[in-house]
Amino acid sequence: MRETKAEFLFCSKLMIIVWMVISYAFVSCIDPSSHTEQVQKMISAAIAAEDTDAVMALDLYEEAYDVLCQYPDSDLESEVHYRMGLLFLRNGLAEECIECMTSAFVLDSVQRDTMGMLRELGYIAFAYETRGHIEAARGTLSRVVDDLGNSPLQVHRDLQTDYYDRYLKVRTRLARLFA
């Protein structure tokens, strides 16, 4: 009886080890790029659907985000947040746009993606403008202009400076109206 019990325990342990080895071999054979490709396809499909069906596009972005929660990729996660923010902005949902763009900004700042950060700050400023928060938009754009400094991207800097000047003019006009 003792030998059967010992043999049974040995066989059980051996089966567990074999199962673990097979499981490890199976999981390690999964190509991680397949998740990346899947998310990229979802993003592409969502971009294509934005003009005709914003709800479907949002669903695709959310599905892509769910995949990224399981298989993290900060570049793609930033892109999903950025695209969702654009979709919200195009559909008049400025608060949601600000939330998504802020999430993308945080991810890009961790990656030190300066152009992505400046791009998102510009859209955050625009979303503030659509909500009528001129001072918040101006503050956000002043940050962009300051961060660009003497950037080689002079055209981008000039564009942001033009927006900043426009906010100053709007603030001056509002002050005259309510003075």
Structure overview:
The protein has 179 residues and is mostly helical. 85% of the residues lie in helices and 0% in strands. The chain has helices at 2-28, 33-49, 54-70, 74-90, 94-111, 114-130, 134-148, 154-177. Helix 2 (33-49) runs antiparallel to helix 3, helix 4 (74-90) packs antiparallel against helix 5 and helix 5 (94-111) packs antiparallel against helix 6. The N and C termini lie far apart (99 Å).
Task: Name a few traits of the molecule.
mainly alpha; 8 helices; about 85% helix; about 180 residues
How many helices? The count is 8
Poorly predicted sequence stretches spanning 5 or more consecutive residues: none
Number of strands: 0
- Compute the CA-based radius of gyration: 25 Å
Proportion in helices: over 70%
| Principal-axes shape call | elongated
Strand content: under 5%
Secondary structure category? mainly alpha
Terminal CA distance: 99 Å
Mean pLDDT level: 78
Characterize the largest beta sheet: strand count, sense, and whether it forms a barrel.
none
> What order do the helices and strands follow?
HHHHHHHH
